[in-house]
Prior knowledge:
Elements: H1 2-22, H2 42-51, E1 59-62, E2 68-74, E3 77-83, E4 89-97, H3 103-112, E5 116-126, E6 132-139, E7 142-148, E8 154-155
Antiparallel strand pairs: 1-2, 2-3, 3-4, 4-5, 5-6, 6-7, 7-8
Amino acid sequence: MKRTILFLALLASASIAGFAQTHKHHHRTKAAQEPKVVTAPANVQNSFNQQYAGVTQVKWNPSYSGNWDALFAQDSTQVDAQFDSTGKWIATHTVYSGENVPAPIANDIRSKFPNASIKDATKVERQDIASFYRVDIDDQGISKTLLANDQGTVTE
């Protein structure tokens, strides 16, 4: 029994010593690397430039489906414009903070939900449907998502 315990103790010690020797410390000797800049294909960039002339600060992200997202700021909003690989525009999502929700929508929400606060809103634009807003509110501690059209008519 003593031999078994002694053998296990030696085995454990050898294992610990072995792991200690294989552990290497990696010290960074190079300066921090710059983030990788992703560039969309020229046809996608051309379509973007035609639709959003004047926007210069764009971050491109490829999607798993082969589409391209152009992320940029415009008039105190965050915009995500989506294009397919041929440059065809698919959709645009424009995010508004609660204070910047267009007045017709904010006014209709205040009339229907007088105690609610508007958290944010996203305008969704696509070719196949009329544009609409998805608005998140807090109505006395209850989170709700509302839909609104461009004229400001709000539905739950």
